[in-house]
Specification:
This protein is an alpha+beta fold. The chain has 5 domains: about 1-85, no CATH class; about 95-180, no CATH class; about 190-315, no CATH class; about 335-490, no CATH class; about 505-605, no CATH class. Helix content is about 45%, strand content about 10%. It contains 20 helices and 12 strands. It has helices spanning about 1-10, 20-30, 45-65, 65-85, 130-135, 155, 160-175, 195-220, 225-245, 250-270, 295-315, 335-340, 345-375, 400-410, 500-505, 530-535, 550-555, 565-575, 580-595, 600-605, and strands at about 100-105, 110-115, 120-125, 145-150, 185, 190, 385, 425, 445-450, 465, 480-485, 490. The protein has a 4-stranded antiparallel sheet with strand order 1-2-3-4. It is flat and about 115 Å long. This is DUF6606 domain-containing protein. InterPro entries: DUF6606.
Length: about 600
């Protein structure tokens, strides 16, 4: 091996490198003050780095002192083994795992060397910590290795040990430990950084913007379209909610996508069930004026979705029909009207009624037989008892209702101040007389629940034969049903819009200016901002680093959504605010991106 190394060293020439490779070496070998600011690793660049070090060692060997040549040759041998141990992706190959290794996914290096009686494993972390890089003045000095472990030779030579060792190192070079991976602080919680999440979210957002309308035209006739869109809404919201928790612009994009997906699902549901258009969905359209949208195309998309929902609400409100979510038993309710037009539901009702009549007939026959037996055998009259049957109504489909309640409650976080826990819990889907008609594994969020017991669940559900007649055997049930949210375990009441979306889509000011955050958001409850008189009357929030003149100019900028840009132009011409302060930049960014009330989007929509 020494002869080969010496021959390569004599023939070695300075390597020719591309500028990209030189920049990569400079960043990773010298830790320059100005780094790329992004992940720049690749197996190809790592190969260039290994080859560069290997060629440099061979050149160094030519002029090295004889006392140092053995150490240089050992380093060359180690680098060659390291090169051989890597596959095309820069990970370890099991059958070549010897000498020194870069365990990529763990940011670790491993050097394995042999002594007379043992094998020494030296492990160390490759990239330094952020704290040490930022806190060190001058050169960062590090010592390698960090930890050494000695394994006796007889253990290392064992076949099982080396097999497990190589498999473990191969797995660790590919598989990242989530507990040790990079983390980000979102909404005061640490979340594992997963590089693929933003790309997956971006692909969904791009598909919705470009392809949703065309896809809906092709699939609107399918009954499964609404269900598919509902699943996409919940999956996308579940993945994006934490990612966009502290990113107001991203959260705005998320809510725009969810809004458009719900509109598409609503159109698909109405195509299959036209009468659904007569009932108001109760989605608050006014909360969407808080979205921060950077592009005109996004403003147009929001305006179209808002116009659809507003027209939908106006059409439904003109008919004065009861709520889909909180009204039961009214003959105008959606459930009863849908039943009256659904042949499938009517056939199911007829089947239930036929079965109920058959059960009643059997129960009456059983009663007569028991009555005759009672008359003939007085000794057993206390022991013979009989259960009675009840009449029930069929439940209706909940797919659209569950999806809409998800948008109202989970996404927009609307308030329901009158929602309450039922004093008793008797769900329709647990009623014994209808369990045979339920679809297997079907669990809907909005269910029918009665606070009053069924008579078959009372303490006098069984009665003595001697004291009852045939009319006492088949009785009416005592259920009084209400809509129930199975997720929150509450009876549903009317929803009211909240400021949750406004808070999510509002940028944060520096801590010294927290008192000014109330002026940043122009939500649906105050779309024009504070009036000049209110500003003059309330100057107490003025922070110490602002003069009163600057404070009044700062909080006056959001006033009037129609004159917003004139306010900004006036400050640019004759500034009373300090444009060098971060607070001013944040305020102008918030005002310039916010969608605003409906008429603020008219120009974008018409053009």
């Amino acid at each position: 091996m020494a002869t080969d190394i010496q021959t390569h060293a004599v023939d070695a020439k300075p390597p020719k490198l591309a500028q990209d490779a030189i920049d990569y070496f400079f960043h990773h070998l010298f830790l320059s003050p100005k780094l790329p600011g992004e992940h720049d690793n690749s197996s190809e660049r790592d190969d260039h780095l290994i080859n560069f070090i290997l060629d440099s060692l061979k050149l160094f060997l030519v002029g090295a002192h004889p006392d140092h040549s053995a150490a240089v040759k050992a380093a060359i041998c180690m680098m060659e083994n390291m090169k051989l141990a890597r596959d095309s992706h820069g990970c370890l190959e099991e059958h070549k795992s010897l000498a020194s290794f870069h365990v990529k996914a763990q940011n670790a290096g491993v050097i394995i060397r042999r002594t007379d009686e043992s094998v020494i494993f030296e492990v160390f972390e490759l990239s330094p910590t952020n704290a040490s890089v930022h806190s060190t003045r001058g050169r960062l000095i590090r010592q390698f290795p960090a930890t050494a472990i000695v394994v006796p030779s007889h253990i290392f030579e064992g076949k099982d040990f080396r097999s497990v060792l190589s498999k473990t190192m191969v797995k660790m070079s590919r598989q990242t430990d989530q507990g040790l991976g990079p983390k980000s602080n979102e909404a005061n919680q640490l979340h594992i950084e997963e590089d693929f999440i933003p790309f997956h979210l971006a692909s969904i957002e791009s598909w919705v913007a470009k392809n949703l309308d065309g896809w809906l035209v092709q699939h609107i006739r399918e009954e499964s379209t609404c269900i598919k869109l509902g699943n996409l809404i919940q999956d996308y919201h579940g993945a994006s909610r934490a990612w966009y928790a502290s990113r107001p612009e991203g959260a705005s994009r998320m809510h725009l996508v969810l809004f458009e997906l719900w509109v598409a699902a609503d159109k698909a549901a109405i195509y299959i069930i036209p009468m659904l258009k007569k009932y108001e969905p109760e989605v608050p359209v006014q909360v969407y004026q808080d979205l921060l949208l950077s592009f005109r195309g996004d403003m147009v998309r929001l305006a179209r979705a808002e116009n659809y929902l507003r027209e939908r609400q106006e059409f439904a409100r003109a008919r004065h029909l009861p709520s889909v979510f909180s009204k039961t038993g009214d003959w105008k309710s959606f459930a009863i009207q849908y039943f009256s037009e659904s042949r499938e539901q009517q056939c199911l009702m007829n089947e239930i009624e036929r079965q109920a009549k058959a059960d009643q007939k059997a129960k009456r026959s059983e009663f007569r037989e028991l009555k005759m037996a009672y008359d003939g055998h007085m000794q057993v009259y206390k022991e013979k008892k009989c259960e009675y049957r009840e009449w029930m109504e069929d439940d209706l489909q909940h797919t659209w209702r569950d999806l809409t309640i998800y948008l109202i409650d989970d996404v927009l976080q609307c308030d329901a101040p009158l929602a309450y826990q039922p004093r008793n819990f008797h769900p329709l889907n647990m009623y014994q007389g209808l369990t045979q008609y339920l679809r297997p594994n079907e669990r809907k969020r909005i269910q029918l629940v009665s606070e009053d017991k069924s008579q078959s669940a009372t303490h006098w559900r069984t009665r003595s034969i001697s004291t009852i007649s045939e009319s006492d055997v088949c009785v009416s049930n005592g259920f009084r049903f209400k809509h129930f949210d199975d997720k929150k375990q509450l009876c549903i009441s009317k929803f009211h819009p909240s400021l949750a979306l406004s808070k999510l889509c509002t940028f944060k000011l520096p801590p010294r200016s927290n008192a000014l955050k109330c002026f940043l958001a122009r939500n649906y409850s105050c779309p024009e901002g504070m009036t000049p008189n209110e500003i003059i009357a309330g100057q107490s929030p003025c922070p110490d680093h602002m003069s009163l003149v600057e404070y009044k100019a700062f909080v006056s900028l959001p006033y009037g959504h129609r004159i917003l840009w004139m306010n900004i132009l006036r400050q640019l011409a004759m500034p009373d605010v300090d444009f060098n302060k971060g607070e001013t930049a944040i305020l102008i960014l918030q005002l310039s991106l916010q969608a605003g009330p409906d008429d603020a989007k008219e120009i974008c929509f018409k053009n």
